[in-house]
Design goal:
This protein has 181 residues and is mostly helical. The longest helix is centred in the N-terminal third of the chain and has 39 residues, at 7-45. The protein is flat, with a radius of gyration of 25 Å. The protein is 79% helix and 0% strand. The two termini are 44 Å apart. The protein has one domain.
Length: 181
């Protein structure tokens, strides 16, 4: 006959398993939040490059169509249609991002001096066409280096909520997505 496991042991095992499961759920949720933050951070850090990628898109498309019509590009092995599709897709996404940046600016302006400063630091650091030195920004806004980077991180988190919507907000506040509640 097989020995029975004492009920106390079963209770301890169950509690341990539940604790581990909750721990794994918290880790997965944090990774999801970190991924959204990193995506937004990468987006703002590469904003200038993405904008440059989209510059003169209608003219580029027109020139390529003319060259195709004239038979000048028949011998080229590149799939120009796919390249242009990619550029058009990037342009659509950048238009959406620009609209969300306007929404974020509006929220920041209504949010008071600190929220407005965070928005301006984000704008100056990554979004304006010309690069600005962090030291110059520290002097302009009268903040220390740590405050500058804390403001920048907070601005990216706030913009992430504007960009990704409720999922980003819920992840920041509770650690769970809406569909997991």
């Amino acid at each position: 006959m097989a020995e029975q496991i004492p009920e106390k042991w079963i209770e301890v095992i169950a509690i341990t398993v539940l604790k581990e499961q909750k721990k794994q759920e918290r880790i997965a949720s944090k990774e999801q939040h970190d991924r959204r933050f990193r995506n937004t951070e990468l987006l703002v850090k590469n904003y200038r490059k993405l904008s440059a990628h989209c510059e003169n898109l209608p003219e580029q498309i027109g020139i390529i169509h003319q060259e195709i019509d004239m038979g000048l590009l028949e011998h080229i092995d590149l799939n120009l249609k796919e390249v242009m599709k990619s550029k058009q897709k990037t342009k659509m996404i950048m238009d959406y991002i620009d609209a969300m940046l306007l929404a974020y600016r509006s929220l920041a302006e209504r949010g008071g001096d600190v929220a407005n400063r965070r928005h301006k630091i984000l704008q100056d650091m990554y979004l304006k066409p010309e690069y600005e030195n962090p030291t110059a920004l520290m002097e302009r806004y009268g903040v220390e280096k740590t405050t500058l980077y804390k403001d920048l991180k907070k601005a990216i988190e706030e913009f992430s909520v504007v960009l990704f919507g409720i999922d980003a907000y819920v992840l920041q506040t509770s650690g769970k997505r809406v569909d997991e509640r």
